[in-house]
Write a sequence for this structure.
């Protein structure tokens, strides 16, 4: 499938898609980002059931700041509009493959139930 480029105007729509979303925050001058790019691109070609996206932090500084990016590369994974993973640093091909396996295995019904329970607790604490 390949990767898509995201910007501040397309980011929210991408999160709302039904497929899991893996976002690589990168910059052209970043050596580790350049080394990770072929690994990310290869994975994107192997998994049509996941959207792989890139955010150039030089061009999209507002988005990067809004997402709390302090180090690049940083990977974020969203599924059903929930941030499941956020970590700076390039991954090896095997580490990315393991992450993808874990993403697919997450029980999202349980995740949503935990979020709802936490929200109920927060509401009770605020009352």
């Amino acid at each position: 499938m390949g990767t898509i480029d995201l910007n501040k105007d397309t980011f929210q729509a991408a999160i709302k898609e039904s497929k899991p979303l893996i976002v690589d925050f990168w910059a052209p001058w970043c050596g580790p980002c350049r080394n990770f790019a072929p690994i990310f691109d290869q994975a994107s070609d192997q998994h049509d059931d996941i959207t792989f996206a890139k955010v150039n932090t030089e061009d999209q500084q507002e988005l990067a700041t809004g997402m709390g990016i302090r180090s690049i590369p940083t990977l974020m994974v969203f599924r059903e509009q929930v941030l499941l993973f956020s970590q700076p640093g390039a991954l090896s091909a095997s580490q990315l493959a393991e992450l993808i396996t874990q993403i697919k295995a997450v029980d999202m019904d349980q995740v949503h139930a935990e979020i709802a329970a936490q929200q109920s607790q927060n509401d009770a604490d605020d009352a």
Q: What stands out?
A: The domain at 3-126 is CATH 3.40.30.10 (Glutaredoxin). The chain has one domain: 3-126.
